[in-house]
Recover the amino acids of this structure.
């Protein structure tokens, strides 16, 4: 029995050093060497300052920008970490049958219709439902098209110009098969600002 | 295109079974070949440092005692590392120690391969804790599961033997030859796709739309290394709060495919390993076929429900039809890059295995969609199941199936030429009854205790609140770890109650399985004759799958009727008005 305890402690420490220290350090070294950008968070810089990460969604409310999906993080939408409240990535975890959920979807659909008066079709579902992470960087192509008229009006540009940028940023299925076609909202909005800069606006 | 993704997943999984399964069999059956040259030196060094003779055989009791001592000390180490987190290094955010009840829960959770989490990783655990406590137990709990399954295979292949192998040898081989190399490869591939792996402080960013948000803090850490073993070891404990829904944990459809494949990879391949170890590969294929049958239909039901049961959403003026520009469906709690098919396939896979990682929020699934993960866990996680534990769990159902078949034809039941006696059946009954009892009694108590009811986050409708509690105990007692995540389980009541369920759900299963292994090893083989029930035929595969379903349904149907089934009827009833 005592020998088993000694063996167990020794084995635990040996394996902890191997898989708890050597392994993560080795993976970190290799990662930073081969994939320096990805391993450190795929950070996006603009004019020398950090705008965010390519992979993490942001909250947009200005009519000049495309909006991402509703987010259930606290204290604010798209909070990826908040020191004071301990806020972090989160879904709403509302049940499909919960009356609060139905009410929230109704309100989002109504708000979207008000903000996008030119859009005649029903709101794409991803714009009326909160994402799993609260940090979803993407919207569906339908959700981007739904907002083109609003963004074009706010920027005083023809819809075709905005639509062309959406088409350029939109991604198909990865490797032609995996996942869903989608638009990265931050990338799209950065492209909008960039094209505005080129046009001297 | 959605169906194609589903088919590619199943095909890729089945294609990996033979090569990986054959390799794992070689690891435990002497000739690991090239791998022995690569990992052999480290293996011998570990045994030398610990003064262990890996060739010394153990009886089942010594095997079980070593296993439990090892896991108990592992739990103590996790407890103390989390409690002392504030004093330890690699803690850039200065995160303080979790409460004693949370630390207890985490320790039991990670040691039992459950990885139930009533905390959010990025706001609770330091890099040091994640690496040296949590990631380590991801490896060791998976290695423990493999060791038990290998010992069981030895019990079946040996004759008149008093021993079933050496626990330390099996553990070290599992970690060194199987889990570590697979994890290292997967981790680097995940970083390529965008999973973070660094020791930087959290990064502060100034978002584009200053009117909406002035600052965004991006959490960092050595995530990829841990996420790889979390998926491969059927652990499931997320580095970040929302697990593999987090873009830093699962950034792209390709990372999602690989993480999802990793969930079932080792459990599926282990069927082949088992067949090879017991010298009858047809047995391994038969088990795999039964597991696949149990997996595929619920997975399709979950997908169908999330895609189609949406009248309540379309009534709100929302477009839920699938088309080339949008996947439609119930997108609450799901990520656009995965869509409906990858979210539901993951939900079925993670609960078929004892993984429990999520890439969407099961709590927000439609009622039938949410029923599927609960059902998969209630079957005892034998449709592939956990690393090692799925195989030994399924073996228990094989005993029940041959017992039933024996009753029908009036013969003493046997499996692989070993007679199955009263002792084996008693142990099998314990294995089936203990988790079921923990689930039902735990749920019942929590539905009347104020501390139990306080955790419900969806009080309306009541059926869903009940489901939240039922899901929590089902997940804990079967060592899954996924949740109807709204449930507020970070309270002393739930941390202790679920911790106890996880402990007994793990070790009250492992010890009887080892006892069976020891008992079978001691028996001599009785040659087959014309009356022997074949255990590799389609007939037996269907009998086995039916046995699993019948036991699960008889035990849990009443509870499911009160939860997701009633909720489904309420939902479609209300939407039809």
């Amino acid at each position: 029995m005592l020998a088993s305890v000694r063996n167990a402690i020794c084995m635990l420490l040996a394996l902890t050093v191997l898989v708890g220290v050597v392994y993560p350090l080795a993976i970190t070294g290799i990662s930073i060497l081969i994939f320096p950008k990805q391993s450190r968070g795929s950070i996006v810089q603009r004019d020398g300052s950090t705008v965010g990460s390519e992979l993490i969604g942001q909250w947009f409310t200005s009519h000049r920008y495309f909006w991402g999906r509703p987010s259930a993080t606290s204290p604010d939408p798209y909070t990826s970490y908040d020191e004071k409240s301990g806020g972090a990535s989160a879904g709403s975890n509302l049940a499909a049958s919960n009356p609060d959920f139905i009410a929230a979807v109704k309100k989002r659909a109504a708000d979207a219709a008000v903000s996008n008066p030119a859009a005649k079709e029903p709101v794409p579902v991803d714009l009326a439902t909160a994402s799993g992470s609260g940090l979803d960087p993407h919207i569906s192509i339908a959700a981007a098209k739904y907002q083109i008229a609003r963004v074009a009006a706010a920027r005083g540009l023809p819809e075709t110009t905005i639509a062309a940028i959406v088409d350029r940023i939109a991604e198909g299925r990865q490797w032609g098969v995996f996942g869903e076609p989608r638009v990265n909202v931050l990338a799209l909005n950065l492209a909008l600002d960039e094209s505005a800069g080129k046009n001297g606006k | 295109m959605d169906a194609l993704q589903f088919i590619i997943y199943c095909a890729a999984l089945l294609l990996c079974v033979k090569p990986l399964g054959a390799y794992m069999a070689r690891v435990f059956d002497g000739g690991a070949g090239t791998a022995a040259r690569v990992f052999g030196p480290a293996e011998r060094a570990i045994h030398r440092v610990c003064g262990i003779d890996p060739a010394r055989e153990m009886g089942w009791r010594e095997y079980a005692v070593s296993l439990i001592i090892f896991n108990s000390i592992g739990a103590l180490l996790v407890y103390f590392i989390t409690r002392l987190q504030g004093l330890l290094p690699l803690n850039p955010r200065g995160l303080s120690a979790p409460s004693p009840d949370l630390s207890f829960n985490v320790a039991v959770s990670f040691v039992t391969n459950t990885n139930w989490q009533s905390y959010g990783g990025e706001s609770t655990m330091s890099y040091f804790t994640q690496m040296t406590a949590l990631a380590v137990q991801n490896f060791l709990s998976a290695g423990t599961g493999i060791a038990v399954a290998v010992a069981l295979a030895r019990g079946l292949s040996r004759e008149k033997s008093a021993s079933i192998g050496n626990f330390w040898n099996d553990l070290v081989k599992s970690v060194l030859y199987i889990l570590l190399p697979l994890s290292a490869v997967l981790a680097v591939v995940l970083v390529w796709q965008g999973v973070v792996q660094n020791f930087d402080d959290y990064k502060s960013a100034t978002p584009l739309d200053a009117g909406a948000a002035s600052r965004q803090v991006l959490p960092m850490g050595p995530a990829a290394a841990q996420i790889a073993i979390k998926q491969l070891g059927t652990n499931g404990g997320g580095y970040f709060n929302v697990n593999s829904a987090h873009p830093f944990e699962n950034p792209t459809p390709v990372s999602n495919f690989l993480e999802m494949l990793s969930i079932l990879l080792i459990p599926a391949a282990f069927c082949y390993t088992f067949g090879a170890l017991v010298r009858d590969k047809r047995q391994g294929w038969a088990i795999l076929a039964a597991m696949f049958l149990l997996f595929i239909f619920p997975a399709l039901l979950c997908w169908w429900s999330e895609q189609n049961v949406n009248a309540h959403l379309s009534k709100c003026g929302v477009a839920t039809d699938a088309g080339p520009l949008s996947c439609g469906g119930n997108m609450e709690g799901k990520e656009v890059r995965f869509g409906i098919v990858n979210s539901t396939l993951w939900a079925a896979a993670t609960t078929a295995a004892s993984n429990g990682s999520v890439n969407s929020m099961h709590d927000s699934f439609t009622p039938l969609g949410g029923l599927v993960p609960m059902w998969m866990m209630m079957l005892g996680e034998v449709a592939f199941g956990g690393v090692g534990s799925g195989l030994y769990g399924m073996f228990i159902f094989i005993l029940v199936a041959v017992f039933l078949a024996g009753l029908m034809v009036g013969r003493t039941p046997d499996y692989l030429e070993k007679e199955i006696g009263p002792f084996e059946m008693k142990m099998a009954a314990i294995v089936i009854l203990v988790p079921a009892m923990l689930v039902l009694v735990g749920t019942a108590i929590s539905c009347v205790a104020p501390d139990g009811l306080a955790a419900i986050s969806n009080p309306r409708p009541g059926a869903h609140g009940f489901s939240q509690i039922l899901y929590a105990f089902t997940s804990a007692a079967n060592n899954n770890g996924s949740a109807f995540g709204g449930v507020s389980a970070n309270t002393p009541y739930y941390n202790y109650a679920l911790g106890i369920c996880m402990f007994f759900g793990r070790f009250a299963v492992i010890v009887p399985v080892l006892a069976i292994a020891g008992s079978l090893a001691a028996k001599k083989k009785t040659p087959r004759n014309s009356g022997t029930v074949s255990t590799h035929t389609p007939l037996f595969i269907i009998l086995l799958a039916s046995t699993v379903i019948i036991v699960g349904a008889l035990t849990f149907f009443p509870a499911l009727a009160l939860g997701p089934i009633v909720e489904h009827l309420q939902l479609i009833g209300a939407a039809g008005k």
